[in-house]
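Hi R.,

As promised, here are both runs. First protein below:
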Amino acid sequence: MGISSGRHYPQDVILWAVRWYCRYGVSYRDLEEMLTERGAPVDHTTIYRWVQNYGPELDKRTRWYRKGSVAFADSWRVDETYIRVGGRWCYLYRAVTKDGRTLDFYMSTRRNTTAATRFLG
């Protein structure tokens, strides 16, 4: 069963939206506009649900690929946010550049040294 089984949109559209939100920090409404321009009209609340459902899995599957991306930025900051995902509260750690571009992210149910070490690697 694929990511889009039982969904109204193709798998590629769902993956684009989740990746663009997590990787580039694009707002849900901006993503709605971008996808509409590309022929895939999607409401911003649908994109929000996709990020909540598929974001953690996308992070898990692509973490090995993005492992060194934070080290190559000249200047970056770490942002920690407490968010609700699938009915559970989680900590979202993000490494961002000075202009707000997301370099890497990590979600954890706990705020402790282990979570920070996994994120900073």
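And here is the second one, sequence first, then its structure tokens:
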Amino acid sequence: MASPKTIFFTDSSMNIGGQELQALQQMRALQAAGFKTLLLCKPNSSILQRASVLGLAAIPICFRNAFHIPSFRQLLHLVRSKDPVAIVSHGSHDALLSVMVSWWATLLGGKSVAVLRVKTFQHGYPLSFAYNHLFSKTLTPSHHLRELFLVNRSIKPNKIEVLYPGIDFSGLRQADGVLPEHVRQWLDAHPGPVISHGAILRGEKGHRIILNALVEVKKSFPTVRYLIAGEGQDRPLLEAEIKALGLEGHVYLAGILHPIAPLLNASTLAVLPSLIEPLGMFQIEAQYLGVPTIVSRVGGIPETILHEETGLMVEPGNVPAWADAICWVLENPIEAKQLADRGRAFVTNKFSMERNTAELIRLIEA
């Protein structure tokens, strides 16, 4: 019987976010499909710690920069000894090192190793050389992001592929734990409809849009609450904005909540008011759990929701439109729930872990 094929995952970030969590989910899914996986990441990084908790094989590599000789030598040794069929790279430093190692491994008589570059953003004008010649494929989480690469007509379209994220819906459904005590106490002390929002605290995530919309919404719904899950650099700015708008009793910054399902299960509606968003995950999870959802019509978000079929879309940054949409959901709970119920079937079909894994295997073996 043939030995299982090995796939490396590399990441040169110290932090952990949706991209890193997705990589860990893919590793587990590929193992279930009969592959061996190995994570190569920075020492003491958050993803290394999380992989240890999940029982996933991992080896620390410095990845200090794209030309770090000790990292190159360590990665080359691992490629030659473990013979991976592909390297799935998530960071710029590890991706370039993986490409150079793949070339050297071939020069030393080994087999060619496919290097798949995962990109969840694109700033500025993309250069064609890297995407045409360095990476076997570049994977984007949405068609919107793919088109941002293809504005450079020199980039070959067949080198940029869309791989929608896979969500462990069964795990999400089973994550029926209780809210942290501090969140539960705040909700108990402030009864009323709950608007939930899970995102890093940065300007492009649109928290200030909802804060300003809330000023109008609470005129019709005086007990409305806005619960923000996440951390980030803008926390002090948001705290100041909440105070300036007189929303202290209506808004709670809950910090990072994992899993997110207990918050969504306690929510009247979920919002994703991003000003920039390659795709987003929070709104997909909300639809799956049957929570009425309102999102910005921006970036890749329209690929995750059907306007007035599975949820509502609002123009980004339009505070009055956001206030109107929130009020509509609160005024029409039956109709809003019907949209959410249709959303579950939509996202289950499009963003399942099974579909993501099958597509990733196809790309690796192509």
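A quick note on the second one: Residues 115 and 135 are 5 Å apart (CA to CA). Let me know what you think.

Best,
J.
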